[in-house]
Amino acid sequence: MLLFVLKIALTVLVTVALVYPFLGYSKDSGVFHEVQTAGPVGAVAIALFFLVLVFLYCRDLHRSLSFVQPELRTASPRSVWLMLLLPYNFVEDFFIIWNVSVSLEREAQHNQVLQQFQTFGLVSGLGWCVAQIVSLVPHTIGFYAGLVAIPFWIVHWRFIRKVNCVLSQTAQANPSF
User: Fold this and answer.
1) pLDDT in tens, 130-157
2) Where are the alpha helices (DSSP H) in the chain?
């Protein structure tokens, strides 16, 4: 219960950071300024494109957790879909990344095909989570943090796809997997 209250409190802070630019304190600040410059149609197109990417990313994270033996998972595969729940996702993303990484690491202790990986995506995953939070800071800091978040996200997503490929091949070769 305490963890849930903490997540909600942090989500309130994130919401304030998201709403701050709309309060008139600074018309050219915040994460939405860059989207605003694209105009209404461009902003909608950017938002839809981003949501499609997040959906595909969640699908891959869901698949990763589904490959992990249930008793070794630190979270349900369904939990990754909380990433689509704005603005709660800004906080929950840290927990999702942690749970996927720890679950894969646990699976690696029992599944030799994962032992080829030295790390389980924690650094790149938490890297994009932190940069995403910093991107809420107005002006240049937030802009550059957003730019930093993207490569971290891509690196993490590529790692997850590699793991899924390896685990998928194992599952096909060994149907009892």
Assistant:
1) 999 998 887 788 889 999 999 999 999 9
2) 2-19, 31-36, 39-67, 89-108, 122-134, 139-173
- For residue 27, the SS3 value is coil
pTM: 0.89
Residue type, 19: V
Q: What is the pLDDT of residues 108-130, one digit of tens each?
A: 999 999 989 989 999 999 999 99
DSSP character string of 44-62: HHHHHHHHHHHHHHHHHHH
Domains of the chain, by residue range, sit at 2-173
The crossing angle, in degrees rounded to 10, of helices 89-108 and 2-19 is 130
Residue 120 tokens, joined: 């389980």
Check residue 39 and give its pLDDT.
80
Alpha-carbon gap, residue 105 to 47, rounded angstroms? 33
Classify burial at 83, counting beta carbons within 10 Å of its beta carbon; exposed 0-12, middle 13-18, buried 19 or more. Answer: buried
